[in-house]
Design brief:
Strand content: under 5%
Signal peptide: 1-27
Mean pLDDT: 79
Helix content: 55-70%
Protein name: Cytochrome c-type biogenesis protein
Organism: Sutterella massiliensis
Keywords: Cytochrome c-type biogenesis, Heme, Iron, Membrane, Metal-binding, Signal, Transmembrane, Transmembrane helix
Largest sheet: none
Number of domains: 2
Low-confidence stretches: 19-27
CATH architecture of the largest domain: Orthogonal Bundle
Family: Belongs to the CcmH/CycL/Ccl2/NrfF family.
């Protein structure tokens, strides 16, 4: 039995769609937590506090990167071991540094993270102010009144008596 070209095309499209809908082979999903809802809630709370070190703009709760999956699994294991949320976060900070936190603490090594945006804003306001003053000075210099000699020359040129 032979398939018509249309049926073959539809079969090919269906196969392509099924391949496109499967997750990437290298990204592993975290195993669902097999414990009570309270522990699951704790895992989610801690995971949302920790930054994915690969993605850097997602928490490990949102990321599907391999490292994020491993970190989530570590959080699950520590919750199962009975550690508190603070102990788990402290362990992750000890292991990966303050960068793993979405809200790093204010200290000398993280001051640029907290003060950098403010400094850039103040610098931008300063540059804007300086630019406005420079333009105002340029307009004031360009708007000097004409001397009597310049005015006479302009009148002659406008009347067409002088070329």
């Amino acid at each position: 039995m032979t398939l018509s070209r249309t049926k073959l095309a539809f079969a090919g499209i269906a196969a392509a769609l099924s391949l496109a809908m499967t997750p990437a082979l290298h990204a592993k999903e975290a195993a669902p937590t097999a414990f009570d809802p309270i522990a699951h809630k704790r895992v989610v709370e801690v995971s949302e506090q920790l930054r994915c070190l690969v993605c850097q703009n997602q928490s490990i709760a949102d990321s599907n990167a391999e490292l994020a999956v491993d970190l989530r699994n570590q959080v699950i294991e520590q919750v199962k071991a009975g550690k508190t949320n603070k102990e788990i976060v402290d362990y992750m900070v000890e292991r990966y540094g303050d960068f793993v936190l979405y809200k790093p603490p204010f200290k000398l090594s993280t001051a640029i993270l907290w003060l950098g945006p403010l400094c850039l804003f103040v610098a931008g306001l300063g540059a804007f102010y300086i630019n406005l003053r420079r333009r105002k000075r340029m307009v004031a210099e360009a708007a000097k009144p004409l001397s009597a000699q310049d005015k006479a020359l302009a009148d002659e040129l406008l009347s067409g008596r002088k070329e």
